[in-house]
């Protein structure tokens, strides 16, 4: 699947948004496709997290899990796939940029590849439709705090 890139603008500070992005335990409430999250390890600069997901899209139903290792360095959060029965790649990053008025522009990119029998064009359509919703959910949660 192609690299997905977007940006999110919000009136909260980069640190406030970063707190929301790193609150993995809340992902099951925040993101409808995430049914469960297991934080296996966590420190100030890293995390190892398993996500259990249930996705229904375009007639396909996928129930799987994946584990990613996160590296946190200042206002940059990177992740990389460690293990999954269905994903062969899941890498990405958030880069949080502070504006002059102490708000945030968050740059997001990710690349996911799967071994599931789902046509690439359906996978691309899923990303195209779900990415804006993902950004809205993170922005709304940060702004509601």
Reconstruct the topology from this structure.
Elements: E1 4-10, H1 14-21, H2 27-30, E2 34-42, E3 46-57, E4 60-73, E5 76-83, E6 87-98, E7 104-114, H3 120-144
Antiparallel strand pairs: 1-7, 2-3, 3-4, 4-5, 5-6, 6-7
Helix pairs in contact: 1-3
| Structure summary, number of beta strands | 7
Measured between the Cα atoms of the first and last residue, the distance is: 34 Å
CATH architecture: 2-Layer Sandwich
The stretches of 5 or more residues where confidence is low (pLDDT under 50) are none
Mean pLDDT: 95
What form results from the Cα inertia axes?
Answer: globular
Number of helices, counting only DSSP H or I runs of 4 residues or more = 3
Order of helices and strands: EHHEEEEEEH
Largest sheet: 7 strands, antiparallel
Kindly state the percentage of residues in helix.
Answer: 25-40%
**What is the fourth-level CATH superfamily?**
START domain
CATH topology: Alpha-D-Glucose-1,6-Bisphosphate, Chain A, domain 4
**CATH structural class:** Alpha Beta
Count of individual domains: 1
Strand content range: over 45%
